Amino acid sequence: LRGPVHLAVDLGASSGRVIAGGVRDGKVQLAEIWRFENQPIRMQQDLLWNHLGLWQNITHGLRLAADQFDATSAAQIASVGVDTWGVDFGLLDEHDQLISPVRCYRDPRNQGMMDTAMQRVSREEIFAETGLQFMEINTLYQLLAAKQAGDVGFRNATSFLMMADLFHWMLSGERTVEATNASTTQLLSPVTRTWSEKLLGEFGLPSAWFPPPTPAGTQIGVVQESVAEATGLRDVPVVAPATHDTASAVLSVPASGFAPARPDWCYISSGTWSLMGVELPEPKITPLCAELNFTNEGGVQGSTRLLKNIGGLWIFQQIRAALQRRGSAPSWAEMVQQAAGAPAFSLLINPDDASLLAPTDMIDEIVALASRTGQPAPSDNGVLFRAALEGLALRYRLTLESLERLTQSSISTIHIVGGGSLNELLCQMTADACNRRVVAGPVEATAIGNVVMQMIGTGQLSSIEEARALVQASFPTKTYTPQNTQAWDAPADRFAKL
Ligand code: LFR
């Protein structure tokens, strides 16, 4: 790397990374500086994030970066910014302390909170205010769970920060709430792009906790002295990227243009979750959108990410975890190979079945689901692996139909970005099930989106279109053309009735 480099701290639900990115010869170049595991921790009934461990790894990664790009290096660190998954948050008190743990969205404490909320404000009203998909993991329901539990953090809070904002606060000392991630709370209006006073009022959430959202690309501050001492990064600007990982991933989809009114491409940001949707200039807060349970999340520069949250490779990952507990640990490649060799459509599972959100054992849960839906139990592991992938492709097919209905457009290309773009079997299944061309890559879409937004924020790039053109020129993609599409018709009918 040469010239200005930007450090992207990219935290996912299973791993975190510190990545340095810069431009050389008209291409984005990335260098992975540090990679670490991330797992929620179960303690008694609670499911918590190890935010201190994450911070320790972040500062370790920053230290390595500061060493690598020191005064003698051809590259100089121009900024740092953090992205994470959505919906999770921390609460700070008046003494600038984080006094309660940061909970994971799969925390059982949230169960039933959506119904509790709707006893106070109707589903229709919540949707009209926020345009968001209804999911129990949403921040709104987590906050209500905290309130109901008499949570010590909740009782003493003076401000609310999303997960990435927490790390920006640790880095710079500044309390900000970045807009794309704020949009995942189900407390923000996608029209005014600020907090819904109505919902805050109805649910007794103090408006003083919620500062006006900061747009992606804003310089929040500089690394504070304690961080400079620990890492060697001195006077480095902290620049908010699109802190919601999905917003960063969508930013780096290698397509032309930005937020077209009639999109002819859609994306699947494929990882632990699959986020499938389009990028639009305006939110779509319509009865059809509510009925199809799509979400209007905030994209960069005022765009909307109209998408559906689909329980993604989580199931595949959790089957592996269950096998590990049983003493066998196939590699990802072995799992895909066995899936490819297994008979097609012998077990159909809906990745969004509520029972699969946080089961204690994914295999037991799938066996129970098979019996509940009148299907034979999986005869071997290959069937299980295949069912996890086919279920996703079938869900994508239905989601694509809904997207075209919602946007009244016809979509010819599906861009798959993120880790799942490496899964060739899933990419081909997606092309076949949806009968559309699939363009897979880049894999590190989120980190790339984080880096290019920092480049926009620091004036190195001037627009989203320019950033996308740069991404297109920098990273190879792989195209899959649909084959054997008819084979998916009958299973899709069965799947729709599950
Ligand atoms: C993807 C993601 C999704 C969000 C889910 C939970 O990593 O950010 O967009 O719905 O995680 O936060």
Structural commentary:
The chain has 498 residues and is α+β, with helices and mostly antiparallel strands. Helices cover 39% and strands 20% of the residues. It contains 19 helices and 18 strands. The strands form 5 sheets. It has a 7-stranded mixed beta sheet, sandwiched between helices. The chain has a 4-stranded mixed beta sheet with strand order 3-2-1-6, with helices on both faces. Strands 4-5-8 form a 3-stranded antiparallel beta sheet, with no helix packed on it. Strand 12 and strand 13 form a beta hairpin. The chain is globular. The protein starts with a strand and ends with a helix. The mean pLDDT is 97. The structure holds beta-L-fructofuranose (LFR). The site of beta-L-fructofuranose has 13 residues, from helix 10.
In short:
With 498 residues, the chain is an alpha+beta fold.
Blueprint of the fold:
Elements: E1 3-11, E2 15-24, E3 27-37, E4 41-43, E5 46-49, H1 51-68, E6 75-83, E7 89-93, E8 102-103, H2 113-120, H3 123-130, H4 139-148, H5 152-156, E9 157-162, H6 163-172, H7 179-182, H8 197-202, E10 219-222, H9 225-231, E11 237-239, H10 245-251, E12 265-270, E13 274-280, H11 287-292, E14 295-298, E15 304-310, H12 314-325, H13 332-341, H14 362-372, H15 381-407, E16 413-417, H16 424-434, E17 437-440, H17 445-457, H18 464-474, E18 478-480, H19 489-496
Parallel strand pairs: 1-6, 12-16, 16-17
Antiparallel strand pairs: 1-2, 2-3, 4-5, 5-8, 7-9, 10-11, 12-13, 13-15, 14-15, 17-18
Helix pairs in contact: 10-17, 13-15, 15-16, 15-19
The protein binds beta-L-fructofuranose.
Family: Belongs to the FGGY kinase family.
Enzyme class: transferase
GO biological process, one term: rhamnose catabolic process
